[in-house]
């Protein structure tokens, strides 16, 4: 296990967080992205995150330096060929994920496992585009990855026991808690969370209350750490819309239809914290 090489595909917020926690746990990590600018941004974010952990006394400077040294970046598919375990963390679009799975299925050794950080797309559907469906599994991390202790694991009907147990062992090495979901749209977390965030958007759109009062009501009445509109901004409004659309399409229930205000904001480029504006301005 200690010699397992991890490849993370996609250097966005989730991919960089996943790469960071594996590097901190002692694994050699290859972080891949087609955009060098995104890789540079990811490495800057990882260094900043580690500096904060050092400042809080949660890791030493020596550990931070050693972790950073275990992390390599690349824009070349062939540089990931030596990975034993690959985690895809690209945007929530099936066509994009399909391309990633087909490309890296061809590049990786036959024994390698491919996991997806998808928050809503069926693992069986992703596995079916590869020649190794038994070695494909869902590994859904929560944001921000270095701080959130839960990982949602999804095995399709094709996922074999050795893949499942290898994934469990990795999560244990990370010091995180694993929950297991069936391969159904949205799995556990987003099946429950996404409709709640969507309903908060509908409530705001209908003028039920101000954004501040909606968030304050849910924080103080339900003991949530942040209100649903703030959380939607944190998740990314484009990501939320994608999750809702997958569930609406796959489950066939109109209750998952994204609120018009969500689609309007996404069309304007107001994606939440990552774009500087969503329900709030950052």
What does this 3D model show about the protein?
- The chain has helices at residues 13-24, 36-55, 61-69, 94-107, 123-127, 161-174, 189-205, 211-222, 228-235, 237-251, 260-268; strands at 6-9, 29-32, 71-74, 85-88, 113-116, 136-141, 150-154, 177-181.
- It is α/β, with parallel strands linked by helices and 282 residues long.
- It folds into 2 domains: 6-181, NAD(P)-binding Rossmann-like Domain (Rossmann fold, 3-Layer(aba) Sandwich), CATH 3.40.50.720; 191-275, N-(1-d-carboxylethyl)-l-norvaline Dehydrogenase, domain 2 (Orthogonal Bundle), CATH 1.10.1040.10.
- α7 packs across α10.
- Strands 3-2-1-4-5-6-7-8 form an 8-stranded mixed sheet, with helices on both faces.
List keywords for this structure.
alpha/beta; Rossmann fold; eight-stranded mixed β-sheet; globular
* CATH architecture level-2 label of the largest domain: 3-Layer(aba) Sandwich
CATH class identity of the largest domain = Alpha Beta
- In spatial order, strands of the major sheet run 3-2-1-4-5-6-7-8
* CATH topological fold name of the largest domain: Rossmann fold
Low-confidence stretches: none
CATH superfamily of the largest domain, please? NAD(P)-binding Rossmann-like Domain
């Amino acid at each position: 296990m200690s010699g397992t090489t991890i490849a993370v595909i996609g250097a966005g917020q989730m991919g960089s967080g996943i790469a960071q926690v594996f590097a901190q746990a002692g694994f050699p990590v290859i972080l891949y992205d087609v955009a060098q600018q995104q890789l540079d941004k990811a490495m800057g974010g990882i260094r900043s995150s580690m500096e904060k952990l050092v400042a809080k006394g949660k890791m030493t400077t020596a550990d931070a330096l050693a972790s950073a040294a275990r992390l390599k970046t690349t824009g070349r598919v062939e540089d990931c060929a030596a990975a034993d375990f690959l985690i895809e963390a690209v945007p929530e679009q099936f066509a994009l994920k399909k391309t990633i799975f087909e490309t890296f299925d061809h590049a990786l050794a036959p024994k390698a496992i491919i996991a997806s950080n998808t928050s809503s797309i069926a693992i069986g559907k992703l596995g079916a585009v590869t020649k190794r469906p038994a070695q494909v599994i869902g590994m859904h991390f929560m944001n921000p990855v270095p701080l959130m202790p839960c990982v949602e694991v999804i095995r399709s009907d094709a996922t074999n026991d050795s893949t499942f147990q290898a994934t469990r062992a990795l999560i244990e090495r990370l010091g995180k808690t694993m929950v297991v979901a069936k391969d159904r749209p949205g799995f556990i977390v987003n099946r429950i969370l996404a409709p709640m965030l969507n309903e908060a958007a509908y409530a705001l759109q209908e003028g039920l209350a101000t954004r501040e009062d909606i968030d304050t009501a849910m924080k103080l009445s339900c003991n949530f750490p942040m209100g649903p509109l703030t959380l939607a901004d944190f998740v990314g409004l484009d990501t939320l819309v994608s999750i809702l659309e997958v569930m609406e399409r796959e489950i066939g229930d109109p209750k998952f239809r994204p609120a018009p205000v969500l689609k309007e904001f996404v069309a304007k480029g107001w994606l939440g914290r990552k774009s500087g504006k969503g329900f709030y301005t950052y």
